[in-house]
Every structure is written in C-alpha cells, then in structure tokens.
Amino acid sequence: MTVPPSDKRIPTYCYQCVAGPDLLTVKVSDGVATEVEPNFAAAGIHPGDGKVCVKAFGLIQKVYSPYRVLTPMKRTNPNKGKGEDPGFVPISWDEAMSTIAEKLAEVRVKGLTDESGFPRVAASFGGAGTPTQYMGTLPAFLSAWGPIDFSFGSGQGVKCTHSEHLYGEFWHRGYVVTPDTPRTNFIISCGSNIEASGGVCGVHRHAEARVRGTKRVQVEPHLSITGACSAEWLPIKPKTDAAFLFSLIATLLHEVPRQRLDLPFLRDRTSSPYLVGPQGYYLRDADTAKVLMWDTVSGRAVPHDMPGAVPALEGTFPIDGAIELGADDERWEHGRVEGVTAFTKLVEHMREFSADWAEGVCDIPAKRIRNVASEYLEAACVGQSIEIEGKTLPYRPVAVTLGKTVNNGWGGAECCWARTMLAVLVGALEVPGGTIGTTIRINKPSGNRLESVVPGPDGLMAYPFNPTDRENWVKDPNMRNAYRTLVPLVGNSSWSPALGPTHFAFMFLDDPPEHMPRGTFPDVLFVYRTNPVLSFWDVDKVGGAFARFPFSVCFAYTYDETNHYADILLPDRTDLEGLQLIRVGGTKFQEVYWDSTGFALRQPVVAARGEARDFTDIATELAARTGLLEKYNAAINRGAAGLPFSGKNYDFRLPVDRQNSVEEIWDAACRAASAELTEGRESQGLDWWQEHGFRTKPFSVLNWFLTPTMEAKGLRYELPYQERLTRIGRQLANRLKEQGITWWDRQLEEYRPLPHWGDFPKIWEQQLIEVGGKPEDFPFWVVTSRSMQYAWGSNAHIPLMREVAGNIKGHDAVVMNRQAAEKLGLEDGDRIEVRSMVNKTTGRVLLREGIRPDTILMTAQFDHWVTPVAKEFDVASMNKLTAMSITLTDATGSAADLARVAIRKIGGRR
Amino acid sequence: MTKWAIVADLRRCTGCQTCTAACRHANATLPGVQYRKVLDVEVGSYPEVQRVFVPVGCMHCDEPPCRDVCPTTATKKRADGIVTIDYDLCIGCGYCIVACPYQARYKVSKAEFAFGHNPTSSETQRYDKRLLGVAQKCTFCSDRVDEGLAQGLTPGVDPRATPACVNACIADALYFGNTDDAGSNVSQLLDGNKSFRMHEELGTGPNIHYLWDEES
Amino acid sequence: MKGDGGAGQFQGVTPWLQTAWDMRAAGNFIGGGTGTGLLFLAAIAALAGGGSPLLVVVGLIAVAGGLFSVFLEIGRPFRSLNTFLGGRRSWMTREAYVAMALFPLGLASLVWPAATPFLLLLVLPYIYCQARMLKEAKGIPAWREPAIIPLIMASALAEGAGLFALLTAILGRRLPPWALLLLLLALGLRAGVWLVYRRRLASGGAPTRVVPKLARFTPPFLFAGHAVPLFLLVVAAVLPSLLAPLAALAGVVVLLAGWAMKAFIITRIALNQGFAIPVTPVRGKRRKGVDAAGTAPGWHQ
Exposure pattern of A362-375 as b/e (b: 16+ CB <10 Å)? Predict the structure, then answer.
C-alpha cells in the first residue's frame, strides 16, 4: 500500500528466535503500527537478503492485544495451585518494586546463598539466549547481584540440540553446527528441520542451495518441512540415527578404497595417528608424558609434536618403553609394548556396523544406506581446494546435520561423534563447503570462535571441563541442577547452569536421588520470556514446583500458565515498544553467519501501552533499590549492555553513581557502537541509529572456518579416539562411587574411547518397565517437529500466527500414518487420546502418508489453560507425556522429546 | 505491452507463510482472508511420499471467468493484465467466487477481528468497510505497482513497486514482473526453467507460473 | 480462524463445498425454473385456447420469488440495480434483462390475454440464461458440466408442466392431452439428461467426493421423482376419471423432484475445483526412479 506522507517506516529488529535477528521496518500511521516489512536497506548485508520471518508479522497484534497485562499486579490469593484463582490486582510500579526490593534486601541480609549453598535468587529465561535481546540492561543487574541460580530450566536439554552444544563445542567449537550452506552440495540431515528452525538465513540459503543443485537426504521418522524440501526422505525408526550414521562410517572405512578418504587431513589435523596402548589410553613418552605417534620417516615412535615427523595413520607398531596415564593416579609403565593407531582402533571398532546391520536396526534398506555413503564420498571432492578472499582452502562441499531428538538424550552423543567423524574422514570439518560451527557458549571469548582455539594437552584444543579429579571435583552442587558435579563437558560459563540437566533442578526439589542434596526453593525467582509450566516436560510436575516457589516475579505480557503461580507480575515493553542495541552479524547460532558484523537497534515504534516499562528502566530501578547502582552502572560501562562503552579511542562511559535514563544508556551504547565500528572515528548517537536502524562493517568469511586456525596453531581435532573424555569419565565414576552414588552409572558408560550402539530405543522401553508399564501397551513413538511460525516466539497468543500456521498441516492435530490409523479404525479428524505412563493428552488426528506407521507427530504443544487465545486451541501436547527421569537422561544431562504412547479413539469427526 | 505475472519457484518454497502474513498486513484483510497463501500438498503414498508447498491466490487470468460472470462489471481486467474489483460497484452476489477455479475470492459479510468483535487500534486504523459484503481478492498490490511506476520504479525489481508477498518471500520463491518483456526477471526465469500453470486445461490463462526444474 | 465462514474461505487443498451460494441462490433456480416452465405452458395453453390469468400470475410470482430469494443472498442488496451493468458478458445480467421484459409482458398479458403467447419469446431465453449461469461457474465442476444446460431446461419444463397439472386441477379444468404429453416428455428428458449428467460427473467430471453423493441421490430421485409420477400418469391414462387428481399429484411430485435436484446441485455437490499440480518440483536433485507426477487432491488420480 502507498504510504501517505504522514506515515513513517521505522527500522527495528525481531529476535523472537535464535535464528535472528531479522531487520525490519514497521509502518506507523498516526502513531499506530500497521505493517511490518523487510528492511530493504539490509538487502545484501543480512544473509537472508534483509527479509523478515513470518513471526515478526505477529508483533503488531502483540502490541495491541486486549489481553495484555498493562500494570504491575500482585497476587491476593496466597494459595497457589492450578485450580486457584491468583486474584491478581493492579498495583503501582512503586509498590511492585518496593515489594521486590524488600525481598531482595532480605536475601542480602540472610546471605546470597542458602544453607545448602544454593543461590537464594534464581532466574529462568527461555529461548536460547533470545530473552537477552529484549531484557535491556538486566544482565548488568544480574552481574551486580552476585550468584543467581539459572538451573531451573524451561526446556533446555529436552528441547534443544543439547549433545551438539556440548560435544560440538568440545570437538570443533561448534556449539551450533551447520553446513557451510552457501557452498555445500550434499547434506545428510538427520532430523534437522532447518527450513523451520533456521530462520530467514537458513531458509534463504537452503533455497539457494537447492536451486544450485545441492542434494539433501532427510533421515527422519516423518516428512517434515525440511524433508519436504529435500531430494530424498529416509523414514528412519526413531532414535536409531546413530546406527545409520555408524553404518555410513563403516561403509566408508570398509567398502571403499582408503585413499579416497582425506588421509592428509586425518593424519595431520586429527588425533588419528596417536598410538593407543593396551589399557586403552594413549602411549606416552615416559619422560615427558607426551603422546606418541609412529613416525614413518624415522621408523620409530616420536612425540606428537616432533617437527618433521610424518606419522603413520594406520597400523600396529612395536614401542620400546612407554607409559599410559589413566584416571586419577593410574599409570602403567610399559617396556616393549604394541601401539595401535587411534585410526586403526576406529577401523576395527566400526567393522560390525555394516549397512546390512543397520538395515535391521533403522528400518532403512542397506542399499540406500550404501548409496548415501557413496554419494557423500563422491560429493566430498577430496583433494580439491577453493580460493576465498585470496586464500586457498580445502573444498569439501558435504555436510551432516542433526536435529533435535536425534541430537539430545541417549544416542545424541553417538550421533554427534559420528557426524563429526563423517566430516573428518573426508576432511570436511570446518572447511569451505563442509560441516562448520557457528558459535561458542562454553569457551571464551564467547564473541570469537577462532580466538577460543588455545592449545591444551597433547596437541589438542583446551577445553574448560568441570574437574573430575579428586582435589577439584565439585562434590557439593553450587546450583540446584548439579551441573558442575555431574557433567564435565558443560563447563562453567555463564551459560553452563542453563545447559546442565535443568530438569534435575525440579526433580531434586522433592525426590533427590541417593546422596544428592535435596534442592531448596529459592527465596526469589525471576521468570522472563518463558513458560515452563507449559513448555517443559512432565509439565504437571513443573507446575507443582512453581506452586511452591515462595516468591516469584514474572515479567508478564499476558496471564499464562507459569505466571499463574507468580506473586508479582511486571509488564515490560514489548518488542515494538522497547529500546535496545544489540550486536548483529559475525557467526552466531543456526545459519546466522554473516560476512558483516555490527549493531542493530530496537526502538519504540509506537508509544508503550499502559504502564509497561522499558526493561532497562526496570533493571536500573532494581539496582537502585537494592543498593547496587554503582556496580550495575559499572557493569554496563564494562559491556553488560552488549558492548563496552569505552575503547581505544573513545569513552562514553556513564556516571556510575546515579540512575541513568534508558535513553542515556542506549545513547552511550550507540556512540560506543559507532566508535567501535569506525575505530573511534565516529560517534553517532541514538538519533542516528533510530533513523538508520543498523550499521555493519565487513566480516571476513575466512572467520567461518576453524581448520585454518587449527593448522596455524598446530593443533589437532580430538577425533576419532576419546582418550581424554574416557579419563574424565572414569574419574567421575570414581568420585561418584566414593560418594556411594550409583544412579549415574549408565550415564558414565557414555565416556568411552569409541562410542557404541547402545540400543537407544530400548532405553525408553526399559524406563516404561521401571515405572510399571508394558512396552507392548504403548506401541507408538510420539515425536515433535519445529514450527517456524511459533518456535521460540512465545507467540501462541497471537491470532495471526495461529491463522497462518493453520495452512501448514499438523499444527492443529496429531499426525498419524493413514494405514496405521485405519488399522485402529481411526478416520481423519477423529478425536483421540494419546497416553503415556506419565499422563495423557487429547486432540484430533490428521491422517497423512508422510510418517512412519509406528510414529505419531505432535508439532504444537498447545494445551494452554491460562494463556488467552491459545487456551481455545484444543491441541494435544506431548509435554504432558514425556517423563522426567534419570533413566532417560544421558551423560550430558539431556533427554529427548520422545515417548512411547498408546492411542485410543474417544470421539468422531467434527 | 505489459502483462504482470508472478513466478513461483516450487523448488524454493518452504511453505513458511511469510507471504501470507505480509499480504494480510499489506492489504489489511480480516482474519481468515488470505489473498496469498501457501498450500501444503502431499503426493504419493508411504514410504514414497513427496510434500510440495504451493503458493496460490488470484491468477489474474488472461480470460478471467470471474470477470465474465460479473453482473456489475465490478470485476475488470486492466490493460496490464491485473484483474481488479470495484468495491463500490460490486453487489456481493458471489457469482465470481463460484466462477473462480482457484478459490481465490472471498466475501466477508460481518467483520470479526483478530481478538473477536472489537478491533485493535491497528485494525481500526485500517478497517475498510467498503469491503464488507463484496468480493475481494489479490490485487497484485496494484496500488504499489501504480505508485511505483509513477515514481519511475520497476515493479518486481524495486520493493516499493512490488507486491508485498514477493517482497516478503524469504526463500526468493516469488517473483513479479512483466512476461511481455522478454528481458524481464520473470521472462528470463520462464526461459531458463520448466514451468506449469495450474488448471491450465480450463482455458483461463492463469498468470502465476510455477517453476519446477531447470531447463535441461 | 476462517473468517466468518463466508464464501471461498481457505479449507485446505482438496475441493470443498462452495458456500457462496446457498439455498437462497438455489431458490432462484427453483423459482426461475418452475416459473418459466409454467409460463411456457401458460403461453401454449393460451394459444390452445385454455389460458388462465392464474397460470401467468403464479408463473410470475415463482420467477419473482426466485429473484427475491437471491436478493436476500447478495452482500449489498441496495446496489442490486448494478446487476444491469454486465450485459456484455454476464448471463446473470442477461437474466435480469429478460426478467425486465418478462414482468411487463406478463402483467400486460393479464390485461390483454392475447399477449400471453408472446411469453414464449422470453421464458426460453430466461431459463437458458439460468442454465448458462451455472455452466459459466467455472469454479464448480458440477455446474460447469455442459449437460447442466439441458438438465436445467428440461427440469424447468417438467416443473412447469407439473405445476400446470396441479393448477389445472385446482381450476377444476381438464388436463389437456398436450400438457400431459409435455409432462411425460419433460419427465423422460430430465431423467435421461440426469443420467448423462451423472455419468459425466462420475467419470472424472467432478471431484471424487461428488460421486457417492450422486450415487445416493440418484435412485430416490429417479424412482420417486420420475418413476412414481410416470406410474401415476399411466394409471391416470387408464382411469380417466382419476386423471385430474392423479396428474396433479404426479405434477407435484415432478415439481418437488426438480426442486430437490436443484437444491442438491447448488448446495450438496457444488464442490469447488480444489488445487492441483501436474508435476512435483525438483529439490536439488531428483532421486532416480522417483515418480515426478503431481497430484490433484480430491480428484480421481
């Protein structure tokens, strides 16, 4: 539509999901927001050509929803429960802040941690870092406060690609792993639903790739959006992806000539040539403890860093004198001993996992598995190179991607290993066209993957494991989910608590396993942009916990299932009302790797409704009322608002002794951003950024690839053999044994030199039996699938999203294979009950061809009972069905969105 | 001569409905009125199944059956091919709706808004009561096209002269342009790729072209 | 979230029942068909010397009732005069034109009965317009089927003849043999055309969901709507004393069957075209041996 002169288009960003930000403009007529459009000025800068995702179009209804909470509220009914009316009544901001400040002051008097050593203040934020893009300077307040427990999850682990986060970051600084989509030609996608989860960048890039001829094979129990957009669909049995990937490796190792693999990469960039001793640890030089390799030049074993050595990749070699270092004090001194290269160990280990074996496990014909292996190898272009920005790099246009449920819970680690090994075998790890990581969250500096590559032991990268040695193991958990105690790989960065077994924080409140301290309820809990009582798993249990939190403060947009239990509701300014500057570009989550880097501004497109307050103002007020103003302001000046306010040629730091206004804070941020982008030459403030919306500078594409840095630093990827993890795991086993803990034994089996096929689907059957069920009574698997229209958006209450999502099959119903349904006498549209051992849910059934007969699909988990609009949906939710259970928790602390269920017709068609 | 058309690349489309949402915004249609939408179509039977996302809407046919049946001449075809509706002439008889083999036309007799009976501020701002009780459909954003041309812009190239759905498409699956111009973006796409038009056998001459493979 | 359930709202990929025209629109085809059919017979009766103003009045009322019925359906009734603007292409406008001549002539014939036969010049165009209106609704396979034209016209004749028989009985007159013949002829014609129409729709001319509906409708339609009146008329022919009541009864049945048929066509089998793709797109590369054929959901593949 034509814009009359009185109309304005205001630039801002949408970061409702981790695939953001998208840069957009909002048309405003007479002060009313009317239309969202892409920010056309970002074409050529944003990798999705400046386009904006469907979710952003819901933001206008979000602003104007009649269901918004527009004033602070307090609970008047002291009884908390699902059936209790909270009796929220409006209060002034002053009363709300005074009440909160009073509680916080009590905490400071009592001590920041309680008798159990747990922080008395907890916070639960949703959406994989997206809240940060909306919470203004709250991080500065959190930093000023001191210890806060972030371990009460809202989906982390069960709802994310958790194994990849930990193992990906460990092996190649790939907290999130993606193909180098602009260059890749062949993708094996195990359950990754990139067309729904990859945001604008993902959709745009993969569309380009398809038209270029890139072939993607989708391996998944149902034909997802991504499956639809793929060249080939392999309907795999749920949770058997590791077997499929193992068989690809076995095929490459045992059925094709070895020289077709990238032997130089394996030899020089991986720990493949390291010699393994009889105890399964590396053989080391007795004096220096350096790992040994067999040097083909000198014909003897040499330390891994011997200059000029050309190590043998394969073989068994006689070594005169070497040691092995095991867990804790284990040390074996060998005289003459046989050293086997790690690669040879791999070759032997993988022999049993042939395509014929996998056919029986995965329900995929061996012939098709072999075809995939063969096409992968063919497409890998082993030996070829490409020039990027004047630099010659290996060109390996093949990638393997893993989706949620494949990539978390049991079998996730094995899939991650196998995926990374598939890249390694053809030299396609962290090189153009290959499998690359985009972000780090456990290592530092978090803003730069390449700089995080620092030498560790044995010529490998350093990694900040949580210690498992006797002296340093964290016996007493510092946070309620015990992440430091149980999960070495999760590290101890600011993200780590929320990456631990976040369900344990809830489970241990009532039912801690043996020798684990009972969780305590934090005195104060803050909740923002998350709804765990609806979106976590075994949600009735989560709701039960929320009912007992003594004092919780929810930043509330509408009433919802979680803030139903809150004591105070605070209305913050929504996406189109608040002010914040964020970093954009570089390499970040999903497919958000740009060839530019810079900043974007979110600004009030329209006046805030009601008494909604900017998050930055709320944070400043909290800091002032808790006496933390100076620390808070100092944290902002240091960079807690997203960037430091001073640098080499500039200083826009704010006075620390007063409450700076939201405009003052972001004006300083804008000036610092301008200066950072121009090396101090320019200092445009808020006005400039409000007009332009974003600003970037070039970011070298070479930064996308880690291998050149590894090469420059002479480091090797720690693959295939997991000597270090094995040691750490055995030490952890020792520590737990010392404490008498046996309930983590199965998880400890994940720490092994080479992963095994643990019949992962069977674990779900075993868990059923443990809780008194019979597997045959629950013959179906229920899985879920990402919805682009909703994912991460906290937007189920936005009618436009409901409307447009309705055009995509499966949003309103439980999807089931037509033939399987007919066997049960079900017709399209029948009402069914889906039951697990945990709970049951009801909905309509939608019969489709694109799903395995033994699997059903629930895309949307919308059994809301408070959230306006959404509570009318009448859609089944698997969040009720999935069990919170240690048995179903893997060693990284994650489980999968997966359950065994029974189906029963309870009504006819509408 | 000018003949505006949309080229939809089915290889690219992922069914995300961004075009649907953008169209709802640009045309301020009431809930459920989707001039542009993307279908989710299954082909084949398990396990040999394909799933295709197909953007549909008014095809701005060469021989529009909706125009031929319109008793009021409210539906017209412009010289540039765009099929229009004069909302002040239309009596809302619904004949065009049943004449359209693409299910592209809507008639809303009673306004319901996103959150029920009461419109939001944004909906109040944009509510056009001329559309009540009459036929409505995709206009190829003719006002954008016309405004853009008046400013010397090229529809299909310059966003300000291009339909909102095309601007919004995140997969670059939608293109707009002049098929009478051999050098235009859409003509070149049609030359370089295999394409079809929907229900072509009905003789309507639809002007949404679907690309499905490159020309071998 | 489907708007107000108004016409054309999105309901998926397979053809769904159109909702733009409901019983109110069907009413126009019922009234128009019956009315013109009756006027047709009234005109012939006038020629044959057995005219009656009642026949003309009822015929005009039926046609007017049909038009009023559709008036209730349109979204902007106060603009209904705009209907006259589309004469270049629209059969709906043409129907309106004919109606504009039909009513003055009909009223005139009440004053000057000699004008009654001239109605023949208008009732045929009127019913043809109605038949063409359905035929031109390209979006509805069950309407655009060419056999709809003879079907609608045959039914109009049958309905008119049926009503003629009834009114004749009410007037206490003897049913002229030509009227009986016309009734029998129209009855046979309608049944025959229906079988052709049904076969065409069932053999790919309409979405598959139409087929069982046709299968359910046809037997009672043919039996009750055709065989039974035929039987009544045969009995009446054998027992002339009962001719009037039996013919009237047969006429009512024929009339109702015609109405039922139109209601069925307009509101039950009026599934729209749905969507189709003749071929599936290539995503990157097509796997060898995969069928590229597309689909037309809801149609016989």
Answer: bbbebeebbbbbeb
The answer to the question of residue B43 being in a domain is yes
Residue A171 phi, psi (nearest 5): -80, -40
* C2 has pLDDT over 70: no
User: Which of B93, B100, B107 is the closest to C92 by Cβ?
Assistant: B93
pLDDT at residue C134 tops 90: yes
pLDDT value, residue A129: 81
- With respect to residue B206, please indicate whether it lies within any of the assigned structural domains: no
- Does residue C301 sit at the B interface (CB-CB below 8 Å)? no
Interface predicted TM-score (ipTM) over 0.90: yes
Q: Which positions of chain B have pLDDT values less than 50?
A: none
**Are the CB atoms for A670 and A693 separated by under 8 Å?**
no
Of all residues in chain B, the one with the smallest CA distance to A868 is: B115
- Mean pLDDT of all residues in A641-667: 97
- Chain B CB contacts of A207 below 8 Å: 9, 11-14, 171-173
Q: Do B32 and C1 touch (CB under 8 A)?
A: yes
- Give the tens place of pLDDT for each residue, A682-722: 999 999 999 999 999 999 999 999 999 999 999 999 999 99
Average pLDDT over chain A reads: 95
Domains of chain A with CATH codes: 162-445+708-735 (3.40.228.10), 759-907 (2.40.40.20)
- Nearest Cβ partner for A233 among B25, B32, B49: B49
Domain range enclosing B69? 4-198
Chain A contact for B53 (CB, 8 A cutoff)? yes
The pLDDT confidence band at residue A783, using thresholds 50, 70 and 90, is very high
Q: Is the pLDDT of residue A148 over 60?
A: yes
Selecting from C10, C284, C286 the residue whose C-beta is nearest the C-beta of A216 gives C284
pLDDT at position C5, please? 33
Do the domain assignments include residue B113? yes
Three-state DSSP state, C174: coil
The tally of domains found in chain C comes to: 1
Per-residue tokens: A530: 């998350």
Cβ–Cβ below 8 Å for B14 and A207: yes
In-domain check, residue B49: yes
The whole-angstrom distance between C134's CA and the closest CA on chain B is 9
- At C178 the three-state DSSP class reads helix
The CA distance from A340 to the nearest CA of chain B, in Å, is 44
CA A632 to chain centre: 29
Encode pLDDT of B101-139 as tens digits. Answer: 999 999 999 999 999 999 999 999 999 999 999 999 999
A807 touches chain C (CB under 8 A): yes
pLDDT tens string A166-204: 999 999 999 999 999 999 999 999 999 999 999 999 999
Nearest to A800 among B13, B21, B50 (CB): B21
Confidence (pLDDT) at A6 = 62
Q: How many CB atoms lie within 10 A of CB A115?
A: 9
The pTM assigned to this predicted structure is 0.96
Query: What is the mean pLDDT of the segment spanning A634-652?
Result: 96
**In which domain, by residue range, is C126 found?**
23-75+85-272
Residues 86-145 of B with CB under 8 A from C: 89-95, 97-112, 132-134
Shortest Cα distance, chain B CAs vs residue C146, angstroms: 13
- Of A18, A36, A19, nearest in space to A27 by CA: A36
Q: Of A398, A412, A472, whose CA–CA distance to A186 is shortest? A: A398
B21 touches chain C (CB under 8 A): no
> Which candidate, B42, B16, C5, C10, places its Cα nearest to that of A846?
B42
Interchain contact, C290 vs B108, CB within 8 Å:
no
Distance between CA A203 and CA A181 in Å, rounded?
10
* Residue C153 located in a structural domain: yes
- Give the C-alpha separation, A413 to A487, whole Å: 13
Of C84, C85, C278, the CB nearest to B196: C278
